[in-house]
Design a protein that fits this description.
A hairpin with a 2-residue loop joins strand 7 and strand 8. A seven-stranded mixed beta sheet has the order 13-23-24-25-21-26-27, sandwiched between helices. A six-stranded mixed beta sheet has the order 3-4-2-1-5-6, with helices on both faces. The chain has 879 residues and is an alpha/beta fold. It has seven domains: 108 residues, MutS, DNA mismatch repair protein, domain I; 139 residues, Nucleotidyltransferase, domain 5, CATH 3.30.420.110; 131 residues, MutS, DNA mismatch repair protein, Chain A, domain 3; 96 residues, Orthogonal Bundle (MutS, DNA mismatch repair protein, Chain A, domain 3); 206 residues, Rossmann fold (3-Layer(aba) Sandwich), CATH 3.40.50.300; 37 residues, no CATH class; 31 residues, no CATH class. It starts with 7 loop residues before the first helix and ends with a helix. About 2% of the residues have low confidence. It is globular. The chain is 46% helix and 18% strand. Helix 5 packs parallel to helix 6, helix 16 packs antiparallel against helix 21 and helix 24 packs parallel to helix 25.
Amino acid sequence: MTDDSVTPMMAQYLEIKAQYSDAILFYRMGDFYEMFFDDAVAASEALDIALTKRGFHLGEPIPMCGVPVVAAEGHLLSLIRKGFRVAIAEQMEDPAEAKKRGSKSVVRRDVVRLVTPGTLTEDSLLEARRHNFLCAWAEVRDEGALAWTDISTGELRVMPCARARLAPELARLMPREILVSDASDTPVTSVATDLGAAVTEVARASYDSAGAERRLCALWQVATLDAFGTYGRAELSAMGALVDYLDLTQRGKLPLLRPPVREALGGAMLIDAATRRNLEITSALAGGRAGSLLETVDRTATAGGARLLERRLSAPSRDLNVISGRLDSVDCLLAQSGLRNQLREALRRVPDMDRALSRLALDRGGPRDLAAIRNGLSQAQLIASLVAGVDDGLLTQAAKSLTGNEDIISLLDQSLVEDPPLLARDGGFISAGFDPDLDETRKLRDEGRAVIAGMQADYAAETGVQSLKIKHNNVLGYFIEVTATHAEKMMSAPLNEKFIHRQTTANQVRFTTLPLSELETRILNAGNHALELEKNHFNRLRTAILSAAGPIGFAAAGLAELDVAAAFADLASGEGWTRPRVDASHAFLIEGGRHPVVERALQRQGAAAFVANDCALTARDAPAIWLLTGPNMAGKSTFLRQNALIALLAQSGSFVPAAKAHIGLVSQLFSRVGASDDLARGRSTFMVEMVETAAILNQADDRAFVILDEIGRGTATYDGLSIAWATLEHLHDANRCRALFATHYHEMTSLAQKLPGVENATVSVKEWKGDVIFLHEVRRGAADRSYGVQVAKLAGLPEPVIERAKVVLEALESGDRDGGNRRRTLVDDLPLFRIAPPVSPAPPKESALEERLKSVNPDELTPMAALNLVYELKKALAE
């Protein structure tokens, strides 16, 4: 193509692309998805595939690249992870139909799906053990709401959410995509950047609350939403935006969304993004699950259970009845090890029914999804029988949801083979005996193959060509093939009257016969008919499953509940964890507490056992704060974190790594630990520290649990001490919460004498011959020094630096002892801080032995002289 004319195909492409200008368009052409123009350039770079050209447009070559349809899912995942959206345009008719309209007619195409980070359903694009949330935030007359769904499981939830709570709630959910109105200013963008979530602006009309209510009623086919709960205008607006967006991206094939669950304000422990990051609850600081609390405690056997566990750890409950019920179920299974082991073994054979159900609802499922429902419901019945005699409220309730699906199980058992193929178009997934018509058709198809084999033997005998084969391809159909050496015989009388020449290749010659052509027609018709019958059965089975979606969903939820309880019990049994006492008091008493992640790491390394420690915040009707001092590397940060994690685990319904634990309900968990900067936003390390500290002081209530480490260390000594001092006073006087406050400012230990709720504690160390030995034991009292120089020596600083540091430290400490202005005098008047030349270690003096050896020339030594030299050196060494 050398001119600028637009071909009909390219005109169709440009028309579709104009409707999806913000997405890469996968344009189906046969067995490939092709991309053109800027899409091709961007995709070739993102996917590292070849960029070619196809024709011209406006005088310029059209860039083009493509990916095979069969490998499209992997490329989709790469594009989504790199921030792209993808519109998939499929061929909506057979190319043969298009040709009937004329030789230049274009196959009709249309977008069937818009793939975005929050709308993934395929197993290959998702993490099986994590949710993939799509969120929508709405604000109506200063009333905010947050709605979220995972379309791969059908879960839909909503809650009131003011702007001030938006960041911590999004940090809890870790959504992949967040919807906001294009007509309102929103605080979402900066939060989404921190979370790595995509932000999508949708039309203001999608947020119309009146229209949203109508859409939601139509979705669940009800006249009113009252049966699901009472929702404010902002909540309706957020849910309506979600449904409208799903209708847009799924092109009218809405996922199987369950009725909404409304989460009450204050139902879960509030944990902000900084605290989640510092405590490494669901992901480590380095990224990923490895090294996180979630990875350490996850012993779930099912994908649904793993997702529920993550939700529990991300949002520990504040409802004492809920917490007690969960702990009871763990206690019950801990006491019955035989039942627990049987239950966990049965759970390991439970497939992911939630995601199979969602794929079937979106018409993206296959026979294996039908089998997943069958196998999951069958295992549910078995598990229900295992826990039938258990006397526990939560376990009993979960078991009730596992039964009542006998009809659908029977249907799937009778209709499906044991191990069906992935795709319906592959056929062979309907059991023999289920449909007599299908059996008859299959018999014809299969016997036809046997007849072909018999016909081949007959023709070989008739022609005397033993190498004669009957083969098949998509172009010629069935044909007879012989080598070129036998071709002349086949084309000579009398064989040429029966064997009709079809094709000659380099080494073979191909023939057919009238009986072979007739048999081919019968076989092909039987095969196609059998496949059509199986597809019809697939659609009927899919419909039957979707009609039972509610009970199936309840069964999946019950299995997840049992899985988490059994996993927590197995964890408690294996690690020696104990049941915490959680009540409405303000107590925080831990005996023999341990950090679960650090302890697990030590076990894997075969290192020394973790040193357990107590924590007793005992003040009544008053704040309770431990001021913790001690050297770096002694374990202060570990101690702070382990107590925060113990509180989190307890309210998640888990036993805890401690000999004993009594925890008064924690409403908020705050952590300011570690040093990091945020240069992208112009924030230094100290600025990040102050922002996070400000968030704690402005939000913590009297039921909060706060851990603070080294407040004020990022600035000058007096500035830092002043900030740390004032922060501790504010926690005590204004927030009146429970807190662990670690510091190197020993001057602050005097606050224990002035503030009744403050108590000093320190991490024990020993000094031996100038070195420091860490005991990792926390005891009441204050540290006398920080041992910073000794720690620097352990880190490997050069010896001259260590010696110089000791001199400086001694001078500073003597200055403190001599009076208020002595330190300043040191700086001004003494040579202590004047620039000194680098101190180099003196070269070691040569020993007498070294001098003697230098005088020896080995080449001049006789054997006897060498032996005498050895005796001489040995005698000198002895002296």
